[in-house]
Design a protein that fits this description.
279 residues; alpha+beta; PH-domain like; 2 domains; 5-stranded antiparallel sheet; 7 helices
């Protein structure tokens, strides 16, 4: 294969994989670039100030330190003939801390009109909470999942705590900073878990670590897959870099006291395949 064609093939593979990672997993170079570019708009505070102003019309006690915008993304898979189709659902809410309780305001966002509408506020406290779980990563994206029982009905609601929200795609309405509000919401949710369900902060953190390391295992497998695709190229370097990244993710799992098992096996198999392709 001609050298220029091989280089073009490698670049094309990296670009395609990066786009797919951004679309389905919201990770990778495309998301990193967007995160960097959108930060200056978040720091300006325009989206944040407008949101606070509109929420304050519904709840006068709203301020910058007690109001959190939450967007929770759920991916479901179903069969479309012989093809698996993935569907993303975006649930938008505003959470307002009120002492040991939360006000919740549903939000509808039109990505075509670039506008949003706020619904009627509802409130829940420890009396309604039946279970609480924590997933995600500190400082970036934490998710509290509450199981509530209200008027005899069980309801699940997710509160996503993201200190820096930015427009990852057209379904994300804001570029805003909300670090202090996220910290206050986190402390209130922790207190709820302890009082309502007798779940300690240590137990919440243990379950969160398991979820975080599961994602690291997935990232390691993806890096190994790219290493295989890069193997039959003009240089061994791209493949080596991919597997170094894969083993770094596995190492992060070890450092968090979550030794990789299945994911380590997958990466080793991928390494063996890449080695055979390089021979």
């Amino acid at each position: 294969m001609d050298l220029s064609l091989r280089i073009f093939t490698i670049v094309l593979i990296v670009v395609v994989v990066s786009i797919l990672e951004a679309k389905f997993y919201e990770i990778g170079p495309v998301i990193w670039i967007k995160r960097s570019l959108r930060r200056k708009y978040a720091l300006e505070g325009k989206d944040r100030n407008e949101l606070l102003s509109r929420v304050q019309e519904l709840l006068p006690q709203v301020n910058d330190s007690n109001t959190v915008f939450s967007l929770h993304k759920t991916t479901s898979h179903h069969s479309g003939g012989s093809v698996q189709v993935a569907t993303n659902t975006y649930d938008l809410h505003v959470f307002v801390v009120d002492n040991d309780s939360f006000w919740v305001i549903p939000m509808e966002y039109s990505r075509w009109k670039k506008s949003y509408q706020l619904g009627r506020p509802g409130k829940f406290s420890t009396d309604s909470v039946k279970d609480v779980s924590l997933t995600g990563k500190h400082g970036k994206h934490l998710i509290f999942t509450f199981l509530l029982e209200i008027n005899g009905q069980q309801i699940t609601i997710n509160m996503d705590l993201v200190p820096f929200c930015f427009r990852k795609n057209s379904f994300y309405p804001f570029d805003l900073m909300q670090e202090i509000a996220c910290e206050n919401a986190f402390q209130t949710a922790e207190k709820m878990a302890r009082i309502a369900c007798d779940i300690t902060p240590e137990e919440l953190e243990e379950s969160r670590l398991k979820d975080e390391c599961l994602k690291y295992g997935t990232y390691a497998g993806c890096a190994g897959a790219i290493g295989i695709l890069s193997a039959p190229s003009v240089s061994i370097i791209p493949s080596i870099v991919c597997f170094v990244i894969a083993f770094l993710f596995l190492g992060m799992m070890v450092l968090k006291n979550q030794p990789p098992k299945f994911s380590a096996l997958v990466v080793l198999i991928e390494l063996a395949i890449a080695y055979l392709l390089l021979k």
